[in-house]
Amino acid sequence: MHAANGAPCRFCGTPLRHTFTDLGMSPPCESFLSADQLNHMEAFYPLHAFVCEECLLVQLQEYVSPESIFTEYAYFSSYSDSWLAHAKAYSDEVIERFDLGLDSLTVELASNDGYLLRWFVERGMPVLGIEPAANVARQAEKRGIPTLVRFFGRETATELVKAGKRADLIVGNNVFAHVPDLCSFTEGMKILLKPHGVITLEFPHLMRLMAGNQFDTIYHEHFSYFSFLTACRVLGQFGLTVFDVKELPTHGGSLRLYARHAEDGSRPVTERVRELAEREMNAGFTRLSTYRSFDEQVKRTKRKILAFLIEARQAGKTVAGYGAPGKGNTLLNYCGIRTDLLDYTVDRNPYKHGKFLPGTHIPVFPPEKLFETKPDYVLILPWNLKDEIRSQLAWIHDWGGKLVVPIPDVEVLE
């Protein structure tokens, strides 16, 4: 148990006293460096996740302001083929299921570069993106997707309603975890939603994070980590009811919650909601002790990753990385992996080329670099996309190269 200087839980206000996992000090995971920044001071912050003893929300303190993380953002959703396909399948499903028509307004919170709303625009449907990162929002605007460069909360929602906009569908894909002011954000959704509208939220499932040892999905821009029970509790506090849930393979195991106004009786609660709530209760997610056992599991994984890399280097093998995702930066900084163990990494996103990873200063190159240097091992940092990457990199077997994933345990893919 560690004291957190009495910092209050962002949902219920209870002082945070119990460690979920302590990943040491780490820089913000998307703060890539240019060559001329390498000799400058770099900001590191505690990456220490706590669990609230009252509401059981797993969370980080807000060490880094959302403005400093998201105003100029390095993540563009459209560079992942599988994520684009996921967004397209989602749009087809919800349009049909909820009978959305040409006058149904879809609002996406944290709409990134328009990777999802583009599918609604293709059908001639009205959309609005709300995205705090101006550089990313510009890409969406180029695709013809109207985008408001703002952080979303009760204030933005109230302004939109006054301007005559209310949503038939509110989409939040991988944003709920990124919100420091959880109460304002949730209340904002309640305000913006039409009386019979639907909210869908996708976020990594804490139950899967723990079972799959996915500690690297903890980083400063993820302020909260939700079990199904806790997410339902947060929404319920603001008059929103979860009426359905889907378990998804994305990001190592995510949930998609479907919510409505509590007073909207037109959408009954499904058996899936009851079944998942019961499963979490049986797995101990209403007990503090379940959460507090995770930290030791994380330390064991760190030792295994380092043992593999040290052994490979001692055998004279070369190791490069694939991808430069936020999760990779958490893993590399926590494990203390630098260019002594990982020569470089590659990424498809040109925004990152020629830059260096925060903290570890590992250089980022285009994927062609792998072909030039022919490493013995390629460590897949976005392990959640390992199947997509495996097919993209099938040619590394031509020189006997092997792919490695670090999570849930180090595994050399055959």
Explained architecture:
Keywords: Methyltransferase, Transferase. This is SAM-dependent methyltransferase. It comes from Ramlibacter tataouinensis. The protein has a seven-stranded mixed β-sheet with strand order 6-5-4-7-8-11-10. It is an alpha/beta fold. It has two domains: 77-291, 3-Layer(aba) Sandwich (Rossmann fold), CATH 3.40.50; 295-413, NAD(P)-binding Rossmann-like Domain (Rossmann fold, 3-Layer(aba) Sandwich), CATH 3.40.50. The radius of gyration is 21 Å and the shape is globular. Helix 5 (154-162) packs parallel to helix 6. The chain contains 14 helices and 17 strands. It starts with 17 loop residues before the first strand and ends with a strand. The protein has helices at 66-70, 81-97, 117-122, 134-142, 154-162, 182-192, 206-211, 228-237, 271-282, 288-292, 294-314, 326-335, 368-373, 386-392; strands spanning 18-26, 45-51, 58-59, 106-109, 127-130, 147-148, 167-173, 193-204, 224-225, 240-248, 254-261, 319-322, 345-346, 364-365, 377-380, 402-405, 411-413.
